[in-house]
Amino acid sequence: MSTRSHQGCWTCKRRHRRCDNARPTCANCACHGVECEGYEVRLRWGAGIASRGRFMGADKPLEENVPARPKGRQRDISKQKKMQETQSNAGPHGLSGDPQITAQERPDPWSPKAARAEHDARLFNEFLTHGINVLHSTNAEDTMLRPRLPRLMEESTCLYAVCLAFQISLSTTHTAVFFEYFDMALREFRSELLRSKTLSDGTLTAGLLLCSIGLMHGLPWTMHLEGVYNILQSHGDPHGTATPSPFRIHLLEVMGVMDLACFSVGRQTQCIGIWRRYCQPVCSRLGVEPVSGLPRTLLDLFAGIGFDTTEQSFWDWPGETSSFMKFYLWEAHRLAGILCIRRHIQPNKLSSGELPGFSAWRHPPTIPAETTVLVGRMLANLDALRLAFAERPDEDAFIKNAVLFPIFVAGIQITVLCQHPEWQATLRRCALGSRQDDVVFDLLGDLWKRNDPDLNVDDLARSRGIEMGLI
After folding, report:
1. pLDDT at 194
2. φ/ψ (deg, to 5) at 55
3. 24 prior amide bond cis, ω within 30
4. Other beta carbons less than 10 A from residue 200's beta carbon
5. pLDDT greater than 80 at residue 446
6. What residues contact residue 447 under an 8 Å CB cut-off, 6+ apart?
7. End-to-end alpha-carbon separation of the chain, Å?
8. What is the DSSP letter of 299?
9. What is 13-38 written as a DSSP string?
10. Tens digit of pLDDT for each residue in 319-364?
């Protein structure tokens, strides 16, 4: 069987015959009576132009005929040439009116990556229109996050993934989809921390949103808050500069509110004291903190529980001018603060039966009766707030986000709630029906069922692996 010749004459090569390499003509061609084309070297040109080698682009194998090469990598030059050709064929705006996208670069709409990108874009749009409203208890125009998101995303590459995880968490938790997004957000956040020399506002925002996911769904979250704080400490001044920006002050206030010990249940780490250390000395004491919906002067009292805040401090708090709805909310928080003082000091173990800072003329020494009155007044304010919101839903639309803390504080007054089972129903009516409410009322229902005043709700939550925020 004949084999292809690689070193024979041109005739044998073309006919795929074995050549004996005889000179000047081979015997194979002479035997078959065909003209032997010889063995000379031939130069082949593509359409008259060399397509490769050192004579690429020349119409003759001479050095002076080689055209000058354009500067840049050949891959980039070819890509730019294809883009120009596509745009010239498709019109002044390419295929879709976007001069930056060509047919070669357009993603396949049926590919998994394109479908995921479209799904994520819808999620992010839902976050901007609905999900972001969960993060504050004041009117939307008072918030500082929404108008700054584009700039913050330029500072933080993980912020987009964290926003997606937050939006997913509002509709579903403890599912494969949620944990996929949540784990991805955590990985990107930790990777960004390792690369960062300073903690930007964008990265800090991403960290606080991760904490928000945990505190709203009973997942461990204070460890993330502690981690962000430690990084702020390691980078020097937590304010970032000697004169911090208003948004940086806002972020520190959010951290301070999250860190308040009374605003969590089942907490797994110690309170850091961010509000007293970094917010009170720098921030203005006037106005309302937008996440909690509470005046800063009232938050000062909550931050002082266990230090210098007494019951009398809450009774003497003057309040601030605002709407009727906010008056209801703040009064419920003020009364809840008094009950937090009693819970912190454990009055049943005091020999005198009287609390420090207790005003004898204002409060009789019989603690159960006083507690019943306080819980009743709290429920009256919460129920009035519920009815006012039903009647005027567009007034202070997001103030309802702040009712969980007084609901919880009233609910853990086990003796009172078991004596007044109708008040349990009132508490449930005042709740929002969110996942956060479901977890809290599951704990409260267990407390009411056991009817044990000595049962610690934080220990009960920790035994279930729950670490819940009340904001």
Report:
1. 83
2. -100, 20
3. yes
4. 18
5. yes
6. 411, 412, 414, 455, 457, 460
7. 88
8. H
9. HHHT------SSS-HHHHHHT-----
10. 888 889 999 999 999 999 999 998 875 433 333 333 344 344 344 4
Question: What CA–CA distance (Å, rounded) separates 31 from 34?
Answer: 8
Place of tokens 């917010």: 279
Alpha helices in 141-245 (DSSP H): 149-155, 159-171, 176-195, 201-217, 222-234
Average pLDDT value for residue range 70-98: 50
* Cα 185 from chain centre: 7
Show the 3-state SS of 424-436.
HHHHHHHCCCCHH
The two three-digit tokens of residue 445, written as one number: 């229902």
Q: Among candidates 421, 346, 207, which has minimal Cα distance to 355?
A: 346
Beta bridge partners of 288: 295
CA 404 – CA 470 distance, rounded (Å): 6
Token pair in block for residue 282: 């720098």
Q: From CA 408, how far away is CA 470, in angstroms rounded? A: 8
Query: CB neighbours of 418 closer than 8 A, spacing ≥ 6?
Result: 448, 451
Q: What's the number of CA atoms in the CB half-sphere (13 Å) around residue 232?
A: 25
| Burial degree of 144 (CB within 10 A; 0-12, 13-18, 19+) | middle
Sequence-separated contacts (24+) of 4-13 with Cβ below 8 Å: 8/39, 9/36, 9/37, 9/38, 9/39, 10/37, 10/38, 10/39, 10/42, 11/35, 11/36, 11/37
What residues contact 246, with CB distance under 8 A and at least 6 apart?
Answer: 144
Residue 153 sits at the vertex; the CA angle it makes with 201 and 115, to the nearest 5 degrees, is 150
Cβ(408)–Cβ(147) under 8 Å? no
288-289 and 468-469 as β-strands: parallel, antiparallel, unpaired?
unpaired
Q: How far apart are CA 145 and CA 281, in angstroms?
A: 23
Number of C-alpha atoms within 13 angstroms, CB side, residue 295? Answer: 21
pLDDT in tens, 279-293: 888 767 788 898 899
With a cut of 70, say whether residue 160 has pLDDT above it: yes
217: left (phi over 0), alpha (psi -120 to 50) or beta: alpha
CA distance 454 to 461: 15
What are the C-alpha distances in Å from 53 to residues 65, 67, 74, 90? Answer: 13, 13, 14, 34
Q: For strand 264-265 and strand 288-289, is the pairing parallel, antiparallel, or unpaired?
A: unpaired
Per-residue confidence (pLDDT) for residue 49, from 0 to 100: 52
CA distance 21 to 28: 9
Tokens of 170: 């509002």
